[in-house]
Each structure stands twice: as C-alpha cells, then as structure tokens.
Amino acid sequence: MTDNMPILLVEDDIVDVKTVQRAFKENHIVNPLYTAGNGQMALEFLRREGRFANPETSPRPGIILLDLNMPVMNGIEFLKAVKADEELKSIPVVVLTTSKEENDRFASYNLGIAGYIVKPVEFDKFVEAIKTIKMYWSLCQLPHTEE
Length: 147
Hints:
Rossmann fold, globular, 5 helices, 5 strands
C-alpha cells in the first residue's frame, strides 16, 4: 500500500479496532488509520461535517475497511450512501466483517465493493487476511484524488 494513503476503518467494536491495529503493526503497514464507530460517523468523516470539518485531521481515505453489523447506520446503509455520492463513490471499500450471510455478500457486491473478507477468529489468520489486503492494494493503481 502507498505508505501515506490514509485508511478509514468503520468498526464499532473496540476489540476489533485494536485487532486491526495490531495486524497492521505485524504487517508493517504504516498508513495513517482513522476510525469511525458506525456508518453515520464515517459519512460525517468523509464529508468533513461537524467535528470532522478539518481536512488535516479528516483526510480523504484511499481505502475504506467496513464492518457491516453496526448501530446507528450499518454497513449496507453506509454503502448505499457512499456509492450514491458523486464525491465519494470512487473510494474503494473492502468489507471486513463476521457476517457469512449470502444476502450481505450479494448486497455488498451489488453496491460496488472491492472485496468481501470474513474476519478470521484466530489472530494469526487475521494477520494473514490483512497481509492479503496489503499485497492486493500495493499492486492496484488507485485514482489520484485532489483535496
């Protein structure tokens, strides 16, 4: 991954946030990682609304890692809003969730996600999943965005 490309993690479970942070460290991923606890907060971050108004502390992410099962606004609702927004729809979204539901996968891909990964329970397998994401996005050519 491009080292300076910000990543937005949309995740309500603090244990899962810490697990992602640990997996990033294990994989030597130094990208700035920003977090939002639900889809509504993530939209505010992306649109720079309210407490996220400062572009220095709320930069546009190059990739969004998205949980599906969250309060306030779940991942599917968030995807619908992001993919309907001309300013945001080009940001790649990778679903990182515990949901193995076929309906969730189907709905997510229909909304234009870049990938769907079921979170492994074992930490070493989770580290491998993050390593795969890192390798994939290191090879991808992402569109350049103007701030």
